[in-house]
Amino acid sequence: MKRRKRSIICVTLVAILLILMFTNPNKSDYVSWLEKKHGITCVNTGMGVSCNQIKANKKMKIERQSGHFQNALIYSVFEEDYKNMEDGTEIKIKAFGTLKQLFDY
Questions:
Q1: Beta strands in the chain (DSSP E)
Q2: Do 19 and 6 contact (CB within 8 A), yes or no?
Q3: How far apart are the first and last CA of the chain?
Q4: Each residue's pLDDT tens digit, 88-104
Q5: pLDDT, tens digit (0-9, with 9 covering 90-100), for 43-83
Q6: Fewest Cβ atoms closer than 10 Å to its Cβ: which of 32, 56, 82, 83?
Q7: Smallest Cα–Cα separation from 30: which of 80, 82, 72, 64?
Q8: Nearest CA to 79 among 90, 66, 89?
Q9: How far apart are the C-alpha atoms of 62 and 68, rounded to whole Å?
């Protein structure tokens, strides 16, 4: 009986781990979330990357300063810094993702 419980627990843990692994958000999920949540879109023009942010129905040119992406198999962490080219303010984006969901932190 103990052996059966142990094997059920092991199978359940492996199933949970596999679900977390296969539903871990990737870079394309982050890009979609960034556009919906923060209004930030970036396009590769061939000569560089051009970024814009739409805020209060106003399109502002921003520049990507730095970024970091960490994939830890069952969760992801995204961090990016942008600079508003019009007024010089900095925009910091930090997101945590798991189960195909992304959250600001």
A1: 40-44, 49-55, 58-71, 76-84, 90-98, 101-104
A2: no
A3: 44
A4: 899 999 999 999 999 99
A5: 988 888 899 999 888 999 999 999 999 999 999 999 999 99
A6: 56
A7: 80
A8: 66
A9: 18
